Amino acid sequence: MKIGELAARSGLTQSRIRFYERIGLLTAVDRRSNGYRVYPSQALAVLEVIATAQAAGFSLDEIRTLMPGDLEHWDHDALMKTLRGKVADIGRLMERLARTKARLEGLIVEIEARPDDIDCAANARRVISSLFESERAKAAS
Question: What is the pTM of this model?
Fold first, then answer.
């Protein structure tokens, strides 16, 4: 199949497909004498794996090391190790995001607790001062 059909069937742009080819993720490509690329049907499956892995948070380098040259010959142990590692990465990210969310929610509460007799700038100074005091207290303990 030609690149236009592959692009239409995969939902990817032709330039994205060429990029994957250039960096070695899409390797089963033939060139005709007229310079046109011809892709086997397996290329669609490869592109689906790449797109799914990227959507799951895998980098292109991770995908390159994970994906076999032939989709029929996966290294089960390497695949499972990589997938478990990504799940652990996501868990750590979720913990970090939860801490950040809690800090921001606390900041919102502090800002909304603005006394009626001070303006927003004075309130910002009050909240920032309070944050620095909290951080110093945490560091001291």
Answer: 0.65
